[in-house]
Amino acid sequence: MSNETHDTVFIGKKPLMAYVTSALIQLANVPSVNIKARGLSIGRAVDVAQIIARKTENAGYTIGEIKIDSELLESQDGRSRNVSTIEIEIKRSTS
Amino acid sequence: MSNETHDTVFIGKKPLMAYVTSALIQLANVPSVNIKARGLSIGRAVDVAQIIARKTENAGYTIGEIKIDSELLESQDGRSRNVSTIEIEIKRSTS
């Protein structure tokens, strides 16, 4: 086990609720989790964050800092192109 | 003309550069612009913000506050469902 306080959930092609569950399990152990995605998965990362924030409204976790960036990836034809990324922090409410 | 200092670019199905141009034109007149999108267009909103930030790196505009939320929309079958939204502020660099 690491002593980092930030764990990361990387959004891919699984059903949304798989990532919601994974983030909630991590949040039981650490105070905040980062949800990361790039390219076409960015919208799904926002969905996951919103589902967690909405379903735990009273309990509760809230959305923290949101960062966007871009990464240079090499595509299959050998050319490099920029892909947008997002990182959404989910943390325990301090109220 | 309004005296608001925040203008908005709503991301839809046009080519990305149409929104980049539209945002840059608004930024010539106001200090900050919000780029808004929902659902499947969220990734494209991040792309537009990143293109502006990257291409004007020295000039320059930077990414400000980013907010995510969800809206209740009625789908065609009459049921209501939540759609995620994003709002990305682009503003003049203060450096």
Would you spell out the secondary-structure blueprint of this structure?
Two copies of one chain form a homodimer.
Chain A: E1 6-10, H1 16-27, E2 32-38, H2 42-55, E3 61-74, E4 80-92
Parallel strand pairs in A: 1-2
Antiparallel strand pairs in A: 2-4, 3-4
Protein traits:
95 residues, alpha+beta, homodimer
Mean of residue pLDDT values of chain A: 88
Shape assignment of chain A: elongated
Output the strand order for the largest sheet of chain A. 1-2-4-3
Oligomer: homodimer
Distance between the termini of chain A: 29 Å
- How many beta-strand runs of chain A? 4
Textual characterization of the structure:
- The structure is a homodimer of 95-residue chains.
- The longest helix of chain A has 14 residues, at 42-55.
- A 4-stranded mixed β-sheet of chain A has the order 1-2-4-3, covered by helices on one side.
- The first copy, chain A, is 27% helix and 41% strand.
- Chain A has 2 helices and 4 strands; from the N terminus they run E-H-E-H-E-E.
- The first copy, chain A, is of the alpha+beta class and 95 residues long.
- In chain A, strand 1, helix 1 (16-27) and strand 2 (32-38) form a beta-alpha-beta unit.
- In chain A, helix 1 packs across helix 2 (42-55).
- The mean pLDDT of chain A is 88.
- Chain A has helices spanning 16-27, 42-55, and strands at residues 6-10, 32-38, 61-74, 80-92.
- The A-B interface holds A 39-43, 46-47, 49-50, 54, 63, 66-70, 82, 84-86, 88 and B 39-43, 46-47, 49-50, 54, 63, 66-70, 82, 84-86, 88.
